[in-house]
Write a structure and sequence with these properties.
Layout: E1 20-25, E2 28-32, E3 37-39, E4 44-45, E5 49-53, E6 59-65, E7 73-76, E8 79-80, H1 83-100, E9 106-112, H2 122-137, H3 144-154, H4 158-161, E10 166-169, H5 176-182, E11 185-187, E12 196-201, H6 211-221, H7 225-245, H8 248-267, H9 278-292, E13 297-300, E14 307-311, H10 316-326, E15 331-335, E16 342-343
Parallel strand pairs: 7-9
Antiparallel strand pairs: 1-6, 1-16, 2-5, 3-4, 5-10, 6-9, 7-8, 10-11, 12-14, 12-15, 13-14
Helix pairs in contact: 1-2, 2-3, 7-8, 9-10
The structure holds ligand DP6.
The site of ligand DP6 has 14 residues, from helix 6.
Length: 349
């Protein structure tokens, strides 16, 4: 099967309309994970990561400039944002204003179609949409690479959601400006591989420990972190080769071991960070049983208990059924490769 290469977003300056812009972005799931920052201010990851942008759970964000307002206003799913989510959005707007040489406050309205903070990459779609919309609203004309660097400053995984299909985020080298320049995402052309991802929403509640705090604790205290980061480099090059071959078994095996390794580093942190719940383990057992029954299916988990199962599209219904049997009552959504972030035109507002 041949899949069109999906390009990245249009430049942010192209379709801004009167003092405001709306952008739509989709979450991505990393097959090779990002975990840990070597520079928290510039949001520079320790490791390269590689992901698949999905066609479900988009985030839609509108940024309008509000020159007379005393401060920024931020709403998240219709309610005023508070605490850390509000602080992160405003810090991001401050960065955009600094780059644009502007000072006007903004009104930001974000709608997620996925539960926020449940390890389903809402920060990836959220900051990808915010980067695109705010750059356009403030008149910053950035190319896709520069937009991905900007999105990374909001959430490193967001740099990958600028692009459709498969994308790699480079960790970059060096420090300061060199690291900032070298850490960006770009699409990975994978012509003949279009898997399904069966998402088991075993728990849609917000996570107890944010991924940001958890990765800091892991880097600072887990004796396993360095060896996972080293093995992740080999995982990445093997993953790239497996994707080019369209080899689902190899892609799945590498993705599963990379994710389990990441969770092992967290379990070894002091104190331990444990995102995986009994329901997660039940789904993992279901995935093992599927493989024992001859169905190629492989699991990956992020900073939460939900499980994403990679499989052939033709097996997706059977995999979804196995997941439902493993965790009765959980909701299951099947995703495919999705588009890059895009600005909405004025007519769509
Ligand atoms: C486990 O990108 O949410 O999903 O950069 O601190 O915002 P911040 O973290 P975030 O972490 C995502 C981690 C992950 C793996 C991945 O998506 O690569």
């Amino acid at each position: 099967m041949s899949v069109d290469h999906q390009p990245g977003p249009a430049g942010s300056g192209e379709r801004a309309f009167e003092h405001g812009a709306t952008a739509v972005a989709h979450p991505n799931i990393a097959l090779i994970k990002y975990w840990g920052k070597r520079d928290e201010r510039l949001m520079i990851p320790y490791v390269d990561s590689l992901s698949l942008t999905l066609d479900v759970f988009p985030t839609t964000t509108t940024v309008r400039l509000s020159p007379g307002a005393p401060a920024d206003s931020v709403t998240l799913d219709g309610s005023p944002a508070e605490g850390e989510p509000r602080r992160r959005v405003i810090a991001f707007l401050d960065l955009v204003r600094e780059l644009a040489g502007r000072t006007e406050p903004a009104v930001v309205d974000t709608r997620n179609s996925v539960p926020t903070g449940a390890g389903l990459a809402s920060s990836a779609s959220g900051f990808a949409a915010l980067a695109l919309a705010s750059a356009a609203a403030y008149g910053l004309d950035l190319d896709p690479t520069a937009l991905s660097r900007l999105a990374r400053r909001g959430s490193a995984s967001a740099s990958r959601s600028l692009f459709g299909g498969f994308a790699i985020c480079h960790a970059g080298r060096g420090t300061g400006a060199a690291a900032d320049l070298g850490s960006y995402a770009e699409p990975v052309s994978v012509p003949d591989f279009d898997p399904a991802l069966v998402i088991a929403l075993v728990d849609a509640g917000p996570k107890a420990v944010s991924s940001r705090a958890a990765m800091r604790r892991t880097v600072e205290t887990s004796p396993l972190y360095r060896s996972w980061a080293t093995s992740s480099e080999a995982d990445l090059s093997q993953m790239r080769a497996a994707l080019q071959r369209g080899d689902l078994d190899a892609v799945g095996e590498i993705a599963e071991r990379n994710a389990l390794g990441m969770h092992a580093t967290m379990l070894a942190a002091r104190p331990a960070v444990r995102y995986l719940s009994p329901a997660t383990v039940a789904v993992l057992d279901g995935v093992l049983q599927l493989r024992a029954d001859g169905v190629p299916a492989y699991a990956t988990m992020d900073a939460g208990p939900n499980v994403k199962v990679l499989c052939h599209p033709a097996d997706a219904a059977r995999v979804a059924e196995a997941v439902r049997v493993a965790t009765p009552g959980c909701s299951v959504v099947t995703a495919r490769r999705g588009p890059g972030a895009r600005l909405r035109t004025g007519a769509e507002q």
